[in-house]
């Protein structure tokens, strides 16, 4: 039979997410801004230069027109006629593109004209631009100019002159172009210089961030030491990031240590019942026994298994509570009455209290509604009341008080038992903490009850604390966000 080769699919290459470079963005931003500013400056500069040159050009145009008018004089012989001496006309500055003029007696004949047919006539005193043979000419027309030459016994009033004058704008255009090239080159040079300075500055400024990232990358479960570079600590923008990283790391480290301790303690707790069970079963197998002995051995093993199951239940419960707290599911929960939860827990523990001859009392000053799973709250009160009953001497009292004010409820459980040494009080909520130093099976609990209580209270955004009572006993105080109910619920005794 031919062997069928499985079809090998080429492994999909992980797509690399496009990274965004902060420094490139900053550099591009700075350069773009500069480019825009330099362009705007160039335009302003060119327009300003053009205006200055045009105004100087117009003055020159006017002076030339008036100088042209000054060349008009009367003929030597009678009858006196106006004549124009073209030989005295100053040469045009541009030989290839000469100036043009036209002199006319106002309302009379043309005296002299050097004005090409293709160039439109000048019409006003304000200079206008027209094109002739591809060259821009600026022209103006001055009217009512006097004839400077005088003769005696002239008939009639003194004649007036109208002079049109046109000059090519090539020189202005060239100078404006020169100014634009100069300003543009200066702008580009400035842009290049500031671009280089910006790149250098940004690279230098971001160096502490790179070193910080390098330091952060070194952190692992084996190395919790975070030593941010001093330059990063001294940078105003990085200081808050460092503080946040340090506090996050310290919290992570604490929780890592707690998890490790929990694991160690759990293993320790599991080891003892498993070892006992093993030795019980081994001794049963060593030699044949009667039914009674087998039954006893199996019953003992079952008892150990039940204890193991209880421990596993508690550990799983703790895990579930922490997960629920992280998912923030509390807002979708129903509102439950605190007084009702406490009463139910007390009811459940009545038998134990009676057996230990403990008097219990529930005082409800003001009931309140809490958004929570009813079972969770009941578990809190059950654990606290059970401890109070368990650790108190017979004949003593356990009191539970429910109060509420201003969006917060306060529930206290107090007993008259032996209490706990002041030095041990802060550790009472630690997982697997047990006041009794002999961690034997006889003590009953696993030291997980109060840890579960604390996790539950915190999952509902509440607080729990414990204080010693005088002359003896403990008081556990739980504070939870709640809505106080308007009426006072009757307190069951
Ligand atoms: P356990 O299951 O062992 O009771 P807990 O977490 O409920 O675990 O309690 C931890 C330890 O705190 C107990 O072993 C006990 O020493 C001490 N403790 C708790 N409640 C009280 C109390 N009301 N009075 C005296 N000691 C208490």
Main β-sheet, in a few words?
A: 5 strands, antiparallel
Q: How many β-strands, per DSSP?
A: 15
How would you write the strand order of the largest sheet?
4-3-7-6-5
- Bound ligand species: adenosine-5'-diphosphate
**What does the radius of gyration come to?**
52 Å
Give the end-to-end Cα distance, rounded to a whole number of Å: 85 Å
Percent of sequence in beta strands: 15-25%
Low-confidence stretches: 1-9, 438-443, 488-493
Fraction of residues in helix: 40-55%
- The count of helical stretches stands at 9
Total discrete domains:
3
TL;DR of this structure?
By secondary structure, the protein is an alpha+beta fold. It has helices at residues 22-69, 170-217, 230-233, 239-286, 291-327, 338-348, 350-355, 374-391, 449-459; strands at 72-74, 82-84, 100-105, 110-114, 128-132, 135-146, 160-168, 335-337, 359-364, 368-371, 397-405, 408-414, 463-468, 474-481, 483-484. Residues 383, 387-388, 391, 415, 417-420, 428, 433-436, 445-451, 474 line the site of adenosine-5'-diphosphate.
């Amino acid at each position: 039979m031919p062997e069928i080769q499985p079809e090998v699919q080429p492994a999909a290459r992980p797509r690399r997410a496009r990274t965004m470079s902060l420094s490139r963005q900053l550099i591009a931003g700075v350069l773009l801004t500069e480019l825009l500013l330099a362009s705007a400056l160039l335009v302003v500069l060119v327009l300003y230069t053009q205006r200055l040159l045009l105004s100087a050009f117009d003055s020159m145009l006017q002076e030339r027109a008036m100088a042209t008018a000054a060349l008009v004089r009367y003929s030597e012989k009678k009858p006196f006629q106006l004549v124009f001496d073209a030989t005295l006309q100053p040469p045009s500055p541009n030989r290839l593109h000469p100036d043009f003029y036209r002199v006319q007696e106002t309302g009379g004949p043309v005296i002299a004209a050097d004005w090409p047919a293709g160039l439109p006539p000048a019409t006003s005193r304000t200079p206008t631009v027209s094109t002739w043979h591809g060259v821009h000419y600026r022209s103006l027309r001055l009217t009512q100019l006097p004839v400077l030459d005088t003769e005696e016994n002239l008939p009639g009033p003194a004649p007036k002159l109208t002079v049109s004058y046109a000059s090519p704008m090539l020189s202005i255009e060239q100078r404006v172009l020169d100014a634009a090239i100069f300003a543009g080159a200066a702008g580009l040079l400035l842009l290049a210089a500031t671009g280089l300075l910006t790149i250098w500055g940004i690279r230098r400024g971001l160096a502490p961030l790179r070193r910080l990232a390098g330091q952060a990358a070194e952190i692992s479960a084996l190395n919790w030491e975070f030593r941010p570079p001093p330059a990063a600590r001294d940078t105003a923008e990085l200081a808050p990031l460092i503080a946040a990283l340090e506090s996050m790391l310290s919290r992570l480290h604490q929780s890592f240590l707690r998890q490790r301790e929990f694991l160690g303690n759990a293993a320790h707790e599991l080891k003892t019942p498993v070892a006992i069970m093993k030795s019980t079963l081994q001794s049963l197998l060593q030699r044949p026994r009667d039914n009674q002995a087998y039954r006893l051995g199996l019953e003992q093993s079952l008892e150990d298994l039940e204890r193991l199951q209880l421990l596993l239940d508690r550990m799983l419960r703790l895990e579930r509570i922490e997960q629920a707290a992280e998912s923030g599911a509390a807002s979708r929960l129903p509102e439950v009455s605190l007084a009702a939860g406490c009463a139910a827990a007390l009811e459940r523990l009545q038998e134990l209290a009676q057996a230990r001859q403990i008097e219990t009392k529930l005082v409800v000053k003001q009931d309140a509604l809490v958004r929570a799973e009813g079972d969770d709250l009941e578990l809190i009160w059950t654990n606290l009341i059970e401890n109070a009953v368990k650790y108190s001497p017979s004949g003593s009292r356990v009191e539970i008080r429910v109060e509420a004010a201003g969006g917060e409820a306060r529930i206290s459980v107090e007993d008259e038992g032996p209490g706990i040494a002041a030095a041990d009080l802060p550790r009472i909520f630690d997982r697997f903490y047990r006041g009794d130093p002999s961690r034997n099976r006889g003590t009953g609990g696993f030291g997980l009850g109060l840890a579960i209580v604390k996790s539950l209270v915190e999952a509902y955004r509440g607080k729990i604390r414990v204080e010693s009572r005088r002359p003896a006993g403990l008081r556990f105080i739980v504070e939870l966000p709640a809505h106080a109910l308007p009426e006072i619920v009757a307190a069951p005794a």
